[in-house]
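Minutes, structural biology subgroup

Action item carried over from last meeting: produce the structure token record for Helix-turn-helix domain-containing protein (Actinomadura parmotrematis). EB confirmed the sequence was re-checked against the source entry. Recorded below for completeness.
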Amino acid sequence: MRLTDLDLTDAQAAELGDVLRGRLADVSAEAVGEIEARLPALVRPQDPRYSAFLTQAVHWGIGRFVEVLTGGDGGLAELRAFYRDLGVLVAEEGIPQDTWQECFRVSTGVAINRLTEAAGSFPGVTPTAIARVAENVLYYLDEITGALAEGYDSARAAGDVLQRRRALLDLVLRGDPRPEDVRRLAADAGWPVPRTVAAVALVRRPGAAGPRPGVPADALPGLHLPEPCLIVPDPEGPGGRARLAAELKDWTAAVGPAVPLAQVRTSLRWARRTLELAARTGPGDGGPVHTADHAVPLVLRHGADLMEHLAATLLAPLTDVRRSREALMETLLRCLQTGFNASEVATLLHLHPQTIRYRVRRLDEAFGPAIRDPDRNLEYQAAVTYWFQTGPHPD
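Output recorded by EB:
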């Protein structure tokens, strides 16, 4: 239907079209406000996607209908594609389909009331014509909800796997899961249990494009949570950081320490603290922020359990040393403090310099160049100091 079908002249139809377009912003804003008041499930302050795409969905829906009324095609193919994508998002995030359908019913009610009010006040528009406008709004709503349902249904098969992975994430985040339950859910979800995982705390970037933000395909997704997160496997594997940076480009993300799956709540706690730290200190290069790169400031703020993880991780090369481990740790600490000056370390420890040089060779063989990296010096000193403070550590 077009405005020219309402027994209006071309000039009257053009003028009424201008009136309706002038009301579009107010009608859309009113519809969004009504939806947020009646459907709180679509209001998630921690994830600006919901507000952005709710506004876009409503504005496009009403705006494109006005375009059709005024003689254009309203970009209907693009509009249907948008709502199909939105249907996939609804399915992936576990939002009941009828919640979004109710969203469109609410916005349609507001649109019918306001657009027919505008048309009814225009000279030459009869009650019959207004009824035809309302009828076509309802037909248009069917087109939108049909596209949404198409996208929703297309995601169901993939959604079954998604739901199983989400159930596994919920299980491990509750804490102390039974190993047999983890194995069963992981097998159902087609998710091989990795040696280590890391939790990733997320906030959607306001400028990110598209209704579905990218996430790693092998992650356990927690985008349905009030504070979105992921669990990613083997985060410290080869190329892991670069891969995460590419896959999480739509997010401001913080990656917690790598831990066994049963300890993922600890990783998530530190990921969220790291995200808070990044918010205070700035986004850096825009990629994910890693807890391991900010261990010292986080420890200073939050306490000992991250220090335990830092010490275990950095000092792992000496874990299996059964003889002289304490002597090597003491030598390492003094080397870190003196810039690996063997003569000065020998004086501090009251030992012959040749003994210190022998120990330093063992340390270099065990740790590689990492212990001589000046950017990691403070972390290694903190780790060794913590190791001594939490002793004894029998050889």
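Discussion: The first helix runs from residue 10 to 38.
Next step: EB to file the record with the rest of the batch.
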